[in-house]
Amino acid sequence: MSVGYRWVPEDIPRQDGRVAVVTGANSGIGYETAATLLERGATVVLACRDTDRAGKAVAELGSLDRAEIVTLDLASLESVRSAAARLVERFDRIDLLVNNAGVMWTPHQETVDGFELQFGTNHLGHFAFTGLLLDRMLTVPGSRVVTVASLAHMGGRIDFADLHSKRRYGRSRAYAQSKLANLLFAYELQRRCEAAQAATVSVAAHPGLTASNLGRNVPRPARPINRVFAAVANQPTPEGALPQLRAATDPDVRGGEYFGPAGIGQIRGGAVRVSSSKASHDAEAARRLWDVSRELTGVEFNGLGADM
Fold first, then answer.
1. How many other β-carbons are positioned within 10 Å of the β-carbon of residue 194?
2. Is pLDDT above 80 for 217?
3. What is the DSSP-derived secondary structure letter of residue 120?
4. How far apart are alpha carbons 276 and 290 in whole angstroms?
5. Count of beta carbons in the 10 Å neighbourhood of residue 234
6. Catalytic residues
7. d(CA 24, CA 31)
8. Nearest-angstrom CA–CA distance, 215 and 218
9. What's the CA gap between 306 and 308, in Å, rounded?
10. Is the pLDDT of residue 5 over 70?
11. CB proximity list for 211: less than 8 A, separation 6 or greater
12. Dist CA 246 CA 36 (whole Å)
């Protein structure tokens, strides 16, 4: 493709016969991702906490024969294991896993397992879910894991001494940590897939500033300003889904790549390859985070060989 080419959903190859799992697919960019993959012929599993909303989403999509629902609460390792077990039993192969779901700027809360909610949901839940499904992906040609990050990762730091913010908590700080963790995980997963000579590749994407329901936890005093800013800066949800759709389906994508909006500051615009922070490429921190995540979740990534 030539420089300046504007990638659009019509560029997505047919996905017939492929199985895609999209977390948080009942709304926002997850819904747009699921809808587009269904339109291109894939069988799509909407892995969602709210199955009632997921059912309504499936009805709206009008592809009842190729859309399935599995209950997934990323804030509960029991739910993660149950959802993964159902999918492993249901499918002998999974071509695409889009780790899209997330929470943002929540008041200080803990998951069922005692993890800080944003770190536990955005990173640890997806870490565990990926590890439990990977056996159905590693030998599948063209299979991909797409992990959805955020511009917020730029301000993130992994505080290994206080991962769960028990000493001090800041909404935006905890969110930024979780999004940096997403990228460290995506890049480390790619390194391990390469070392194991697996067919699966790991890539990442972010939506820039996009209209979604993630902003519902903005502190009350800041909501009027946030509404004005969002009205001016946010791009429509379908456009926000383009980076992860390209990461998921473009035949030219290579493992370890990161996609986001083409505009100034990666805020909005067409889906292109973009750069991420220096901290996101810290291989030592990524290995340490991987080991900590294994310990916290109890999930081993079978098929990727010995520890690196």
1. 14
2. no
3. I
4. 19
5. 19
6. 175
7. 8
8. 6
9. 6
10. no
11. 230, 234, 235, 236, 237, 240
12. 11
Six-digit token pair at 27?
């709304």
Q: From CA 109, how far away is CA 17, in angstroms rounded?
A: 41
Instruction: Report yes or no: 73 and 109 within 8 Å, Cβ to Cβ.
Output: no
Q: 48-82: string of b/e by CB count within 10 Å (b at 16+)?
A: bbeeebbeebbeebebeebbbbbebbbbbbebbbe
Residues 16-34 have pLDDT tens digits of 999 999 999 999 999 999 9
For residue range 96-145, what is the model confidence (pLDDT) as tens digits? 999 999 999 999 999 999 999 999 999 999 999 999 999 999 999 999 99
For the stretch 174-199, pLDDT in tens is 999 999 999 999 999 999 999 999 99
Give the dihedral of Cα atoms 151, 188, 48, 75; nearest 10 deg.
-90
Q: In what order do the strands lie in the sheet with 67-71?
A: 67-71, 43-48, 19-23, 96-99, 144-148, 201-205, 258-261, 271-273
Beta pairing class for 144-148 and 96-99? parallel
